[in-house]
Structure formats: structure tokens, C-alpha cells
Specification:
The complex is a heterodimer. Chain A is an all-alpha fold. Chain A folds into two domains: 100 residues, Rna Polymerase Sigma Factor, Chain: A (Orthogonal Bundle); 70 residues, Arc Repressor Mutant, subunit A (Orthogonal Bundle), CATH 1.10.10. In chain A, 68% of the residues lie in helices and 0% in strands. In chain A, helix 9 packs across helix 10. Chain A starts with 8 loop residues before the first helix and ends in a 12-residue tail after the last helix. Chain B is mostly helical. Chain B has five helices and no strands. Chain B is rod-shaped and about 145 Å long. The relative contact order of chain B is 0.03. The chains are: A mainly alpha, B mainly alpha. At the A-B interface, helix 3, helix 4, helix 7 and helix 10 of A face helix 1 and helix 2 of B.
Chain lengths: 205, 129
């Protein structure tokens, strides 16, 4: 049975508009209504992005897959009660996946940099580890050295292309805090990758 | 310190971001399959009919009356027996005292005669036979 999402007369127009502007919410409502094809479409649309985020935050393919499956499972379970006035489906899913990643990362206690850490000069080891990699691999490696919150902000802003207000919603912080984390993350990345300009193909620019 | 000319610029970093964005996020088929199975299972769970509500306890009176009588019997039976015994003792004493029942009258009664006739052994216990 199709579940009518808008409930109050006041919220009806807003909820309807948000459902229309969020195709994932439409698909989720269809899934909740028993449409078997809707879930396949949602998987195609959302899974790559969530898996990409999880991989970059966790730096572990198997764990990233587990987190992605868990996040999607939570989506299936919330589908009948989904309120489109609350958030976009993708925003909600990013938040769930991010929190799952942070929980796992905290349990692992990684040897990452302190949250307020910024590099004054890259260590020879970091430069050495990154030798012989492509730009993509070099950036992925450098990302792994960022504090988790900086990494999360940089990935969501610069790799997933989300707007700062949406990132703020996902991370549960202010837009200013997102801007600060993102800027610090970029500075750290620049420092980490410095000295490899020629190797990365930027020397002639 | 890194030489300034070796430092990556903001533009260089943006180009690296672009390179990563251009890379497709490949999702293993096995993962897609796991997620799809989760979706189907959750959907099937919700489409299952809800379990029938528990029948309410019947409210008609006969069973409850029967149960009440049953419960009362446990209390009433010993009380009734005791009361009957006490009444019998009291009534017997009162009858004897008022001459309504005497040994002679008892022995001369049809009951005593029949008992003596049917059960001769009892005559040993009945004074006068």
C-alpha cells in the first residue's frame, strides 16, 4: 500500500514539494508501498556515493562495504516512516554512514593526526610512501592522514560536491565549522602533497 | 622547509579533486546483491499479515459462576460439616434432656428391632437384647 507522507495541512505543500525535488524520496515511498523495482533504483543511485564516502573515511574496503550495507539496511527500515520534510534521503544516508564510519574509526583508534593538527612541513616518510602513485592514489593517501572530521568535510565538499549547509546537516555542526574544517583539511593536504609537484605533473603549470 | 616553488597550489589541489571525482566508484556486485536481498527481506517482512489479535477472555457468566461455586465449596464444605455435627450434638442432648428420646424408647424402636434381626452380632452391643 502506498503510504501518504504529508500529514498536516500546513506541512502538506512543503512535504510534497520536497518529495518532488528529492527523487530518492519518491523512490523510497514507492519502495515502502511494495514496489520491488524502486529498491533496485535506490541501490543504483545511492550505494556508489555511500561506499565512496565510507572507503575514504575508513580506508578499508571490507569495512566500507559493511558500513554501506548497514546504512542501506537502515534506509529500508525507515522507509515506511520516512518524513520528507525532515531531510533529503541522500543527506540522511550520508549522515548515517558517516556516523557508522566514525564509530568504527574510534573503535580502531587509528594513528591519525590530532584534530587541530596542521603540517608545517611534510615528513620524508609521507613523501616516500606516496612516491610512484597517480594523482588519485596520492590524494587518497593524503586524505588518510587527515583527522577524521577534516577528512569528512573535505570528502563531502570536494569529492562528493555537497554544499556546505548540507554538510553541516550531515556532520551536525555549523556551516562556519564546516568551512573551517574544509579549509584546514585542504591546507593540510597541500602541505602533505608538496614536494611532489613534478611527480604529480604540476611542475610545468 | 619545502621550497615555495615545490608547494602545491590551491589550483593543483582542485585538479586532484577533479581527478578523484572523475574516477567511478565501483560497487562490487556481491555488495549490490547483499543490499538488494536486505531490501527484499525488509519489504517481505512488512507485507506479511499481522498476527491475529489475542481472543479476549469470555465474559459470559456460567463459567465464572461455576468457578465461584467451586471456590466456595472448598470453604463451605468443612464449615457445613462442622455446623451439622454441632447441631446434631446439641439437638441430641436437648432431646435426651427433654425426654423425647430414652434408652427404652430407642431399644423398643423398629430401628433397633431391625438391626438386631439383620445383624445379630449387634445385640451384644444393645443393652436389653
Amino acid at each position: 500500500m502506498f503510504r501518504a507522507v504529508p500529514v498536516t495541512s500546513q506541512g502538506m505543500k512543503m512535504a510534497f514539494d520536497q518529495t518532488v525535488s528529492d527523487p530518492d524520496a519518491v523512490l523510497l515511498a514507492r519502495y515502502a508501498g511494495g514496489d520491488r523495482h524502486a529498491s533496485a533504483e535506490l541501490v543504483q543511485r545511492l550505494t556508489p556515493r555511500i561506499l565512496g564516502l565510507a572507503r575514504r573515511l575508513l580506508q578499508d574496503g571490507a569495512e566500507a562495504e559493511d558500513v554501506t550495507q548497514e546504512a542501506m539496511l537502515r534506509l529500508w527500515r525507515i522507509a515506511p516512516d520516512w518524513d520528507p520534510g525532515r531531510a533529503r534521503v541522500s543527506t540522511w544516508l550520508y549522515r548515517v554512514a558517516s556516523n557508522l564510519c566514525i564509530d568504527r574509526q574510534r573503535r580502531k583508534k587509528p594513528a591519525e593526526l590530532a584534530e587541530d593538527w596542521e603540517v608545517a612541513d611534510p615528513t620524508p616518510d609521507v613523501t616516500h610512501v606516496m612516491q610512484g602513485r597517480t594523482r588519485v592514489a596520492a590524494l587518497e593517501d593524503a586524505l588518510a592522514h587527515l583527522p577524521l572530521r577534516q577528512r569528512q568535510a573535505v570528502v563531502l565538499r570536494h569529492l562528493d560536491g555537497l554544499a556546505n549547509p548540507e554538510i553541516a546537516e550531515i556532520m551536525g555542526i555549523s556551516v562556519e565549522a564546516v568551512e573551517s574544517l574544509s579549509a584546514r583539511g585542504k591546507r593540510t593536504l597541500t602541505t602533505l602533497l608538496s614536494g611532489r609537484k613534478e611527480e604529480l605533473g604540476f611542475a610545468d603549470d | 622547509m619545502t621550497e615555495p616553488e615545490n608547494r602545491l597550489t590551491e589550483t593543483d589541489l582542485d585538479r586532484m579533486f577533479q581527478a578523484v571525482r572523475a574516477e567511478p566508484d565501483v560497487v562490487p556486485l556481491a555488495l549490490m546483491d547483499r543490499i538488494a536481498r536486505d531490501a527484499s527481506r525488509e519489504q517481505a517482512l512488512r507485507s506479511e499479515p499481522e498476527p491475529l489479535p489475542r481472543p479476549k477472555p469470555r465474559s459470559w457468566r456460567v463459567p465464572s459462576l461455576s468457578a465461584a461455586v467451586h471456590r466456595a465449596m472448598h470453604l463451605l464444605l468443612p464449615v457445613g460439616l462442622t455446623a451439622s455435627t454441632l447441631m446434631g450434638v446439641w439437638f441430641g442432648g436437648w432431646a435426651m434432656d427433654n425426654g423425647l428420646v430414652s434408652t427404652d424408647a430407642l431399644l423398643g424402636s423398629d430401628l433397633a428391632f431391625n438391626l438386631a434381626y439383620q445383624l445379630p452380632a449387634l445385640t451384644d452391643y444393645l443393652v436389653g437384647y
